[in-house]
Write a structure and sequence with these properties.
The complex is a heterodimer. Chain A is of the alpha+beta class. Chain A has helices at 59-71, 171-187, 221-240, 288-293, 299-310, 314-321, 324-334, 339-356, 366-377, 383-396, 400-406, 414-427, 429-436, 441-453, 460-475, and strands spanning 10-18, 75-76, 83-86, 96-99, 106-115, 118-131, 135-138, 148-151, 158-164, 199-206, 213-218, 248-253, 258-264, 274-275. Chain A has 15 helices and 14 strands. Chain A has a nine-stranded mixed sheet. A three-stranded antiparallel sheet of chain A has the order 4-3-14, with no helix packed on it. A two-stranded antiparallel sheet of chain A has the order 7-8. By secondary structure, chain B is an alpha/beta fold. Chain B has a domain at 7-248 and 392-468: Amidase signature (AS) enzymes (Alpha-Beta Complex). The chains are: A alpha+beta, B alpha/beta. Chain A binds chain B through residues 45, 48-57, 84, 86, 88-90, 93-96, 148, 150, 270, 272-274, 277-280, and chain B through 71-73, 79, 81, 86, 89, 91-93, 95, 190-195, 197-199, 225-229, 304-305, 307-308, 310-314, 316-318, 327-328, 331, 351, 354-356, 359, 363.
Chain lengths: 476, 475
């Protein structure tokens, strides 16, 4: 099957990833742990752009950038070169952003995603390093605001901007690309997606070979899909009415789910890029091989390993490796439980229940799931009860043992079922005769009676089997 | 006017009396001065001197007073850069050189006047009034570190720091008859120096002798991890204070004696070169063919960098603010009313040179010329040990003479800017006078061969007495 792409959709993405796992900012020694701190408490002359201050490259940030570049199959530049991007804005304390221009740290890579028609390659144009600006806070609503406050805690945070080629053919593919990218970043341990402002997306989109628009202010993967769906629809309607798509920058209004024109091409800034004279080029050509050596196992490789090492279905391997925390969690479970059973429980049951509640794996413990799976495997509770225990832990808390006890979930012993079967047979001779005579439905009635006698604690399937065995014995 | 005293005399005097007494006498001189060399006098200077007396500070500059150009960040003191836009800004941190001076026991007397953001050759563009030349109060002290040179010449401090982007230490040193040194690019940390043109400038000392320059360089020079352009290579300046130029090869670049050079200046410089001959050196003429393009390239690069460096002054975080209906209006009103004419001119020209469509024609071309100018220096300095030329083509000009003609003012930098393009070290030492006004001899060396430069200058100073000529009472 080949995806036809009927509207000729071409989507390219620019993703800003904050290197929030660094200890210090991109060009100064300020701590990056400002997320719960008061405003302007994580600042110094450098990230405040005070007169006379000078930047110094955070070597660890460069290392992270190279790690990302290599993970995206990019070529790494021989030496770093920073440029100044000049524009005026109150959140930009120097009046320019220190960024990379014609010599990005990494370029020419690719990422494979699950596309509309199977595996699909998205080419990576480049990945470059830059700094985050500060944050503006309006007093009250933006329209009626009496003033604006500026918090420079974020100013100077290290960012990687990843730019893709326009290789995505639908909003769904764009979202899958973003999911994959986030997954890779987390595998690389350079980024924590839970922190505010961790990832921001700008999207370029065109249809039918027309001019493209750039949609800014997308802050989530869901938002990206919604913004693109809206923007494609808008462009289609425009063409249908005989209009033309103009090259422009549009703002995504997350609350209303629409894109709004910000500025046309003619109003684009001239950023007057020039090489940052305060940062001498740093030779990194010889860094790449050892960083490559130390690169952790990435999602695709882990998925293949899971299939071969744990003998699991590829579907399970894919689900388990789509989040490094789930993969790590799974491997701890698989160390004590049969890996295939563990895969089914973690990938199908646990992940499903977590997704349903918008929770992530960190809200469940390895010990609990191991205990629950053991109870099921040992026949002490039914599979259905196992799921119920998982749900109860998520919704109300508690330990598996307590939940099993409090809810009377322990499976009744076989002999109780055996006794119930023989009682039901002696008490229901008519139904028995009917079944032997060929009325299949009578079996259901008999099994139902067994369940009734055991107050529903017997396993229905097991009760059915034991009933059949008993009837067989009578027949012989 | 106080006597000129060098560091060794000062230290002797201090051990005989006290640092506090020395500081007090300089403060008294400053108080009586009419040359407007200081923009700020530190009211804690005397306390500082007293505490040095009390502690028995053993540093290289223990109790020695010094004045600081107002473009160098000094904690707790105003750092205005001669601009209204930094009025009221008190620096919350010390520049690297200030930290070093404090550790060495120096007593900071105050901040000195300068062309606004170091953009000028006369100190006339300061928002805080022109500094007068101690040799003739009708004349400019040179610039942009005019305050720093004038206060040394006037005996209002024995030492000062300036900064040199295109001659800003050497020009005023030459005009005021004192010694001014621009170290090799990367020899002194720029951390805390408010940037005008980052790729060109260095902090440099001004003093009444080469010996003092060497002491001061040993204090402020050396690697600093906070300045990425700082070079991790030690130069021992005082070790270069050797009176020996036997066998020294001097190159005399023809292009530095070109059109517009004052006959008296030319003669003084040649006299100096012949003096070197008498001391055992040899000289030869060298050609530096790209010199004629250096000035244009310098101004394009300096203005381009400046247009970006000065973008941060928007009235948002510090300095005065002129309100407007939104942030952009506020920022542009603040900049329009608080930057002087010359600064605005350079920001506009630099912005233009970096703009799409002009970037290649101006900025990139200037960078190419810069490479050619550097190659001129590499070639010339592979044949000779040092180059010698006039620092300035003329003696100090009159106040008001050139300020309304920026082009003629820019032209006076013709002999100093190529040095900054190449990043090589250069010193200006007094070598005579024309009509009672001092003339500076410029000695230029190889990158990071500051020692040969210091040795050459020291030998000249030891065998001549030009550097002892001091102005008469000016006020």
């Amino acid at each position: 099957m080949v995806y036809e792409n009927p509207d000729g959709v071409m989507i390219g993405l620019e993703i800003h990833v904050q290197l929030n796992k660094l200890n210090t900012k991109m060009f100064c020694g300020c701590s990056t742990q400002y997320h719960n701190a008061g405003p302007n408490t994580h600042v110094c002359p450098v990230c405040l752009g005070l007169p006379g201050s000078l930047p110094v490259i955070n070597k660890r940030a460069v290392e992270y950038a190279i790690r990302i570049g290599l993970a995206l199959n990019c070529d790494i530049v021989e030496q770093t070169q920073f440029h100044r991007k000049n524009y005026y804005y109150p959140d930009l304390p120097k009046g320019f952003q220190t960024t990379q221009y014609d010599f990005p740290i990494a370029s020419g890579g690719k990422v494979v995603i699950e596309g509309e028609d199977g595996e699909h390659v998205v080419r990576i144009t480049r990945a470059h390093m830059e700094e985050d600006p500060g944050r503006l806070m309006h007093i009250g609503s933006i329209e009626k605001s009496k003033g604006t406050l500026i918090d420079y805690n974020r100013s100077g945070m290290g960012l990687i901007e990843i730019v893709s080629e326009p290789d995505m053919r639908s909003p769904k593919e764009a979202r899958r690309f973003l999911d994959k990218l986030r997954n890779i970043m987390e595998y690389l341990d350079v980024f924590d997606s839970d922190l505010e402002g961790a990832m921001k997306v700008d999207a370029n989109v065109s249809i039918m070979g027309g001019d493209r628009t750039e949609v800014k202010n997308i802050s989530s993967h869901k938002g990206a899909e919604r913004a693109l769906l809206y923007e494609i629809m808008r462009q289609k309607n425009l063409l249908r009415r005989g209009g033309n798509v103009v090259m422009e920058t549009r703002h995504f209004d997350e609350a209303r789910g629409v894109t709004i024109s910000m500025r046309t091409k003619e109003e684009e800034h001239d950023y007057r890029y020039f090489p940052e004279p305060d940062l001498v080029p740093m030779r990194v050509a010889d860094w790449a091989p050892s960083i490559y050596e130390a690169l952790p196992e990435l999602p695709d490789a882990k998925r293949e390993r899971f299939v071969s090492q744990y003998d699991m279905a590829d579907m399970h391997a894919k689900a388990l490796t789509s989040d490094i925390r789930v993969a790590d969690f799974y491997e701890l479970v698989a160390a004590v439980i049969d890996p295939r059973t563990a895969a089914a429980w973690v990938a199908d049951v646990l992940k499903g229940e977590l997704n349903y509640r918008d929770l992530n794996i960190t809200s469940f413990t390895v010990d609990d799931i191991v205990e629950i799976i053991k109870l099921v495997v040992e026949g002490k509770i039914t599979e259905k009860s196992g799921v119920q225990v998982i749900r109860t832990i998520m919704d109300e808390g508690g330990s598996p043992q307590d939940i099993v006890r409090q809810n009377g979930l322990l499976r009744v012993e076989d002999d109780i079922v055996t006794q119930a079967v023989s009682e039901v047979i002696s008490e229901n001779k008519d139904a028995l005769s009917d079944y032997i005579a060929g009325k299949g439905k009578s079996l259901n009635y008999l099994v139902g009676q067994v369940m009734k006698k055991t107050n529903g604690r017997a396993d229905a399937r097991q009760a059915r089997e034991m009933m059949l065995e008993a009837i067989d014995r009578i027949n012989k | 006017m106080a006597e000129w005293m060098n560091i060794s005399t000062l230290k002797e005097t201090i051990s005989g009396s006290s640092a506090a007494e020395i500081t007090a006498s300089y403060l008294e001189t400053i108080g009586k001065s009419g040359i407007n060399g200081y923009t700020y006098v530190f009211d804690g200077a005397l306390e500082r001197a007293k505490s040095i007396d009390k502690d028995g500070h053993g540093g290289m500059l223990a109790g020695v007073p010094i004045a600081i150009k107002d473009s160098i960040s000094t904690k707790g003191m105003p750092t205005t850069c001669g601009s209204k836009i930094l009025e009221g800004y008190v620096a919350p941190y010390d520049a690297h050189v200030i930290e070093r001076l404090k550790v060495a026991g120096a007593v900071i007397l105050g901040k000195t006047n300068m062309d606004e953001f170091a953009m000028g050759t006369s100190t006339e563009s300061s928002a805080y009034g022109t500094t007068l030349n101690p040799w003739d109060p009708k004349r400019v002290p040179g610039g942009s570190s005019g305050g720093s040179a004038a206060v040394v010449a006037a005996g209002e401090t024995p030492l000062s720091l300036g900064s040199d982007t295109g001659g800003s230490v050497r020009c005023p040193a030459a005009f005021c008859g004192v010694v001014g040194f621009k170290p090799s690019y990367g020899a002194v940390s720029r951390y805390g120096l408010v940037s005008y043109a980052n790729s060109l400038e260095q902090i440099g000392p001004i003093a009444t002798s080469v010996e003092d320059i060497a002491v001061l360089m040993d204090v402020i020079g050396g690697y600093d991890s906070r300045d990425s352009t700082s070079i991790d290579k030690e130069i021992r300046y005082q070790d270069a204070l050797v009176d020996d130029v036997a066998g020294l090869n001097i190159g005399v670049p023809t292009e530095y004696f070109g059109e517009g050079i004052d006959a008296g200046v030319e003669k003084s410089v040649w006299d100096a070169i012949h003096m070197y001959e008498d001391m055992g050196a040899t000289w030869t003429q060298v050609s530096m063919p790209h010199t004629k393009y250096a000035l244009a390239a310098y101004y394009v690069i300096a203005m381009s960098e400046a247009s970006s460096n000065l973008a941060r002054f928007d009235g948002t975080r510090y300095g005065p603010r002129v309100d407007g209906e939104n942030w952009h209006v506020m920022a542009s009103r603040t900049r329009a009313s608080c930057f002087g004419k010359e600064v605005q001119r350079r920001i506009l020209l630099g912005t233009y040179a970096l703009s799409a469509g002009y970037h290649d024609k101006y900025y990139l071309k200037a960078l190419k010329v810069r490479t050619l100018v550097k190659q001129d220096f590499d070639r010339a300095l592979s044949q000779v040990d040092v180059l010698m030329a006039p620092t300035m083509p003329t003696p100090a000009f009159k106040i008001g003479e050139k300020i309304d003609d920026p082009l003629s003012l820019y032209l006076s930098d013709v002999n100093t800017v190529p040095i900054n393009l190449a990043g090589v070290p250069s010193i200006s030492v007094p070598c005579g006078q024309v009509d009672g006004l001092p003339v500076g001899l410029q000695i230029i060396g190889k990158h990071f061969d500051d020692s040969t430069l210091i040795r050459s200058a020291f030998a000249f100073e030891t065998n001549t007495d030009h550097h002892t000529m001091r102005p008469a009472e000016v006020v």
